[in-house]
Amino acid sequence: MVSEDALVEARSLTKVYPPRGSTAEFRAVDGIDFTLQRGESFGLLGPNGAGKSTTMRMIAATSPISGGTLRVLGMDPMRQGPEIRARLGVVTQDDHLDNELTVRENLHIYGRYFGLPRAVIRDRATRLLDFAQLQEKAGDQVETLSGGMRRRLTIARSLINEPDILLLDEPTTGLDPQARHILWDRLFQLKQQGVTLILTTHYMDEAEQLCDRLIVVDHGRIVAQGSPQELITRYATREVLELRFRLDERDIAAEKLGTSVLATGGTDTDGRVELLPDRVLVYTADGESALATVHAMSLTPLTALVRRATLEDVFLKLTGRSLIE
Ligand SMILES: Nc1ncnc2c1ncn2[C@@H]1O[C@H](COP(=O)(O)OP(=O)(O)OP(=O)(O)O)[C@@H](O)[C@H]1O
């Protein structure tokens, strides 16, 4: 039974890639459940190979499901692929823009693909160029655009059919910080206009900015779901003391700190220490007093920073791995 207003509903959704050559079959998505309501921005978060793109392709009706059920806009992707695709905007990791055409021509071609009348395409293309801040580039060949502009054009193009849902697979991977911020701003504007976003990302700040709700996936399974703040409250301590040590001091410092954090366990039950290749993280309710403990132990970190817990910390706790490998 599909709940009212559910734009996407997955139950025990599974994807098994068949064996190829000497490679055995592979369970890329292993029985996941989620429901996406209209107007809600939804994120799939996880490391490389977690099954995010595979899930997106099943929602976009471009890859058949292997098990469970999936409804998209109330329809069955296995039987109603064209109807579903007509109402989606899809931004894949590769943009597939036509480099030899101009920016505006790329929008027009896509409009024709959806069978839209010429006058409608012209109007929408002008509005979308404006939205993507590419008016001045309208007549330029796509191959002359920067990475950030290409991404904005890809997103503009995906909106030509005025989709109900916009699927974005790692929208800002590979962009510089300024280009990412411009893109976030554009996506945030879309969200405010009522477009439902589904996005995959490795970036915690992106997920925190854009997603109302998240599923964290690892090895094809959901390891947690909730709003960014709920996940942080549920899985991470309030504060993190982030320390960098000289390499020869790092392991011994982590060990000593681990013992001291465990010793304070009575009041700080989630306290723990994580040793990363470049940092030692102390999870604690009170970062400043943890730092005082560090100094009292005569440890000499090169840098020490007290910060609030983020989704990155949630992920590390849930999977024992850092998101960007
Ligand atoms: N066509 C395919 N045939 C066989 N295995 C595949 C195929 N596509 C993906 N896989 C495997 O399925 C797993 C999940 O891949 P997927 O691309 O969905 O992960 P992801 O979470 O999107 O990762 P990334 O962040 O790297 O894009 C990976 O181990 C991948 O190698």
From TrEMBL:
Q: Which organism is it from?
A: Micromonospora tarensis
Q: Which InterPro entries match?
A: AAA+_ATPase, ABC_transporter-like_ATP-bd, ABC_transporter-like_CS, ABC_transporter_ATP-binding, P-loop_NTPase
PANTHER family hit by this protein: ABC TRANSPORTER ATP-BINDING PROTEIN, ABC TRANSPORTER ATP-BINDING PROTEIN NATA
Task: State the taxonomy lineage.
Answer: Bacteria, Bacillati, Actinomycetota, Actinomycetes, Micromonosporales
Q: Pfam families given for it?
A: ABC_tran
List locations, semicolon-separated.
Cell membrane
**Entry keywords, A to Z:** Antibiotic resistance, ATP-binding, Nucleotide-binding, Transport
> What topology does it adopt in the membrane?
Peripheral membrane protein
Which SMART domains does UniProt cross-reference here? AAA
ABC transporter domain ranges (all copies): 8-244
Q: Which family does it belong to?
A: Belongs to the ABC transporter superfamily.
GO terms of molecular function: ATP binding
Gene3D superfamilies linked to this entry: P-loop containing nucleotide triphosphate hydrolases
Q: What is this protein called?
A: ABC transporter ATP-binding protein
The superkingdom of the source organism is Bacteria
